[in-house]
Amino acid sequence: MRKILLILIVILLPVSGFTSDTPRLILNKMFKSVAKNWFPNNYYKFKSLELSGEMSITVPYSSVSRRLKYVQGDLSFAFNFDGVLQPSGVCKFNLQGDFGNVVYCVTPTKTITYSEDFNAYSISDSNTSNLNNFKSYFIKKINLLKDNFSSGRWNFQMQSNIVLGGDKCYKVTAFTPPPKEGARRNKRSNVIKLKELLTFYKKGKVVFFIRAKDYLPLRIEYSNDEQNIDSTITFFYGNGKQPASMYVEGTAANVSGRGDASIGYGNGILSYIQLSFSNALNQSYTFNANFNFKPSVDKSEFLFLPPSDAQLMGRENLKLLILSNVAGTLLRMQQAGINIKTLKF
Fold it and tell me: Sign of the C-alpha dihedral, residues 121, 127, 133, 134?
């Protein structure tokens, strides 16, 4: 009788969702579903991508530094871009706008940045891959996330039969051990860097609401008390299995913000993204991009050499020169005591 009970327990535990492996299994199914449905197999045939679009940023002087709190007006800039990209990371882009005219070119061995305004360029080492199609490119990005949650650093919990927007969902929670109180207190007083926002999944707590019928994510909630970040991303699918839009809201460094993105497709292939974001400091960002995936590579589109009379400069020095093109703001920032070397881009 005891053996029969043990066999029943072994059989029933996976079904009832009490094993530690079950949340990982559901999470892996989500990553697999995203790879299959968001990025269908047609992406295997695409070897290069034409990109074009524009980006604009508006930041009040008062939000840059306390020293500028009495300065009226905004620090703003905008630029257009167009270029070509391979899955390996090899690319060539032209940027035109408040930064001036800039060419950014990545070869398998070198990265070249050239400013037409200053007739100057910099060269640094590049880090490209051997990927030759965009399906592999997207799978690699997804696997980076999946491998992170399989690293052993995370603990998991799961609830079944959660309803979100009329859909039955799994709720999978992944979390790392909480930080020490001193670390939490110090981080709360710091402004969060963009790099930390983009690598949010490294620690903290992430809650996935995963649609039961197809394992696609409907909502991702992220919180990190140490870095003082709290955010939510909600996906809207319409009638298909690719996200037609996204809504983002959250708080970082005690500043709340929200944004949304519209996503367009042609025959299931990404064709455009329109993104806007604003926060409580009246900082606003807009980004629009058009995508044209191509089945072949025209190597001539990726070739670039600076003019023979262009000056070779260090990368950081060239960045400062390009930054000084942002219309009329450099002098006022320096007068206010802002060291522009601390600005990152």
Answer: negative
Residue 58's contacts (CB-CB under 8 Å, 6 or more residues apart) are 74, 75, 76, 282, 283, 284, 285
**DSSP character at residue 235:** E
DSSP character at residue 178: P
| 83 backbone dihedrals φ, ψ, rounded to 5° | 175, -170
Per-residue pLDDT tens digits for 77-132: 789 999 999 999 999 999 998 888 999 999 999 999 999 999 999 999 999 999 99
Sign of the Cα torsion 163, 169, 170, 171 reads: negative
Please tell me the chain's helix, strand, coil percentages from 3-state DSSP, rounded to the nearest 5.
30, 40, 30
The verdict on pTM exceeding 0.85 is no
Give the amino acid at 247: Y
Sign of the CA dihedral with 16 first, then 222, 150, and 34 last: positive
Residue 240 DSSP one-character state: S
- Hey, how many other C-beta atoms are within 10 angstroms of the C-beta on 217? 21
Paired residues of 186 in beta bridges: none
List alpha helices for the chain, DSSP H. 2-16, 21-37, 61-64, 134-149, 181-188, 194-198, 315-323, 330-335
Tokens of 179: 């930080």
Judged on CB neighbours under 10 Å (0-12, 13-18, 19+), 134 is buried
- The answer to whether 101 and 117 have CB atoms below 8 angstroms apart is yes
Rounded-to-integer distance, Cα 72 and Cα 117, Å = 29
Can you tell me the distance from the alpha carbon of 247 to that of 219, in angstroms, rounded to the nearest whole number? 9
